[in-house]
Amino acid sequence: MLTERLYRQDPYIVSIRAKVLEINAGKGCFDVVFDRTVLFPEGGGQPSDLGSVTTDAGATYEISLAFDKALDGPVYHRIKADAQDLALTVGEEVTLDLDFDQRFQNMQRHSGEHILSGAFYLTCGGANKGFHMGKDYITIDIDLGGRTVTAEELRAAERAANQAIWDDLPFHTEFYPNAAAANEAPVRKVVDLEGVISVVFVGDPDDPFDCVACCGTHVQSAGEIGLIKIYKTEVNKGMNRIYFDCGSRAFDRVCEEIDILTELANRYSTAKENLLHKVDVEAERSKALRETLSSLTAFYREQRSAEFARLWSEAGGAVHIAADELDPDDLLKFAFACIEKVAPSDALAVITHQGSRTAILVSSGNSYDCGKLVKEHAFACGGKGGGRKDNARAVFPGVKEMLKFVSLLV
Ligand SMILES: [Zn+2]
Predict the structure, then answer these.
(1) Model pTM score
(2) How far is the CA of 150 from the centre of ligand 1 (A)?
């Protein structure tokens, strides 16, 4: 049984009376077919509409998905209900309501995709070979014969798309009996579909800004889209994947990003226009600081390792040095510097770092097997770790456990 798709002629109808033709039971849900619908079923990259069905007795069910299995076949409306709670019968007349806020957002995004694809085709001959409408952005894959789109081409296409919005170009759908007839229209993509073909024109039908076969829902005129904004682009399978969005979604994203820029400018105490320069200056400063820190750390390492050598010459065997001032990443380098000072001999350096509750063991590789020592004693103190004969690492839940481990070695 077929469903009359009223959105095709008028995508602005939000509420209708419809007759229940079929109720198909699924798992915890029902897929209901009506004689007519205002809900667009998912397809062609456009998500399903949402809505609700209300019986005359007052029962209301949310429609979470509309879908079809064939282009002109019945439209199924998925409602969640248990069999005993379903007060809906075949043949009954009900009210079908569309969630128009969600639909309008979809129309803005889907219609915007037509315009941006048309703009790439017009400005640089790019052909749209792929389309995806995601939650946070839309993507189109623009084929330039293997070439990467330039920044100038991107800006030109984006500007042309927004110019179509500023010119408020009309959207117009024409129905053709078959693909051959549709291909007589100035379509930017050859039509190879079966059955009646709907072709969407943007602008003057005799000299359209864009013209392509499509059975989705579209705005009446481009002004309703409001804004088309490209976010970024990347090369994908030899084509250019363009990330963008339209309408209220694009507006929200632009607001968020301007807020981030404003906050960054405040934190750097500068104007947005100076941010890049400011970041460059900070990066230079940070690089110089890292270099200073690196040479100071090397100097410090040398001094402390000399201290280790002195302690070792007095006590011999295993010596503990607390190196809390060092960066945890420098501990191993420091431990090796200590051992080098007394090598070759039977020495064990136990280097600890309170902040990371880490103990590093380094030996001259003769009498002390660091990995074995960690295995034997660190686990017993609640720590974990491992390593080789000449160096090992153990991490502890607390400083107390770490110092207990040290006391077993030194
Ligand atoms: Zn479309």
Answers:
(1) 0.77
(2) 27
Question: How many angstroms separate the alpha carbon of residue 111 from the centre of ligand 1?
Answer: 6
Report how far ligand 1's centroid is from the alpha carbon of 154 (Å): 22
Residue 224 Cα to ligand 1 midpoint, Å, equals: 15
The CA-based angle 272-116-141, given to 5 degrees, is 100
- Out of 267, 289, 310, pick the residue that ends a domain: 267
Distance 214 CA to ligand 1 centre (A): 5
* Other CB atoms within 10 A of residue 297 CB: 17
Query: Residue 30 C-alpha to ligand 1 middle, in angstroms?
Result: 29
**What separation in Å is there between the alpha carbon of 10 and the centre of ligand 1?**
14
Tell whether 131 and 228 lie within a shared domain.
Answer: yes
What protein residues have CB closer than 5 angstroms to ion ligand 1? Answer: 214, 216
Ramachandran region, residue 44 (left: φ > 0; alpha: ψ -120 to 50; beta: rest): left
Give the C-alpha separation, 81 to 64, whole Å. 12
Q: Are residues 79 and 165 in the same domain?
A: no
Tell how far the Cα of 115 is from the centroid of ligand 1, in angstroms: 10
Distance 130 CA to ligand 1 centre (A): 13
Residue 164 — φ and ψ, nearest 5°?
-60, -35
Q: Are strands 358-363 and 391-395 parallel, antiparallel or unpaired?
A: antiparallel
Burial group, residue 32, by CB count within 10 angstroms (0-12, 13-18, 19+): buried
**80 close to 99: Cβ distance less than 8 angstroms:** no
- How far from 13 is each of 6, 9, 40, 65, 207, CA to CA, in Å? 8, 9, 12, 18, 29
Which of 4-8, 47-51, 54-58, 330-334 is predicted with the least confidence, judged by mean pLDDT? 330-334
End position of a domain, from candidates 53, 78, 98: 98
Residue 158 belongs to domain with CATH number: 3.30.980.10
Ligand 1: distance of its center to the CA of 216 in Å?
Answer: 4
The per-residue pLDDT for range 208-265, each reduced to its tens digit, is 999 999 988 999 999 999 999 999 999 999 999 999 999 999 999 999 999 999 999 9
Tokens of 352: 């600890």
Query: Are 222 and 202 contacting, i.e. CB atoms less than 8 angstroms apart?
Result: yes
- Check whether residue 168 and residue 152 sit in a common domain: yes
Distance 29 CA to ligand 1 centre (A): 30
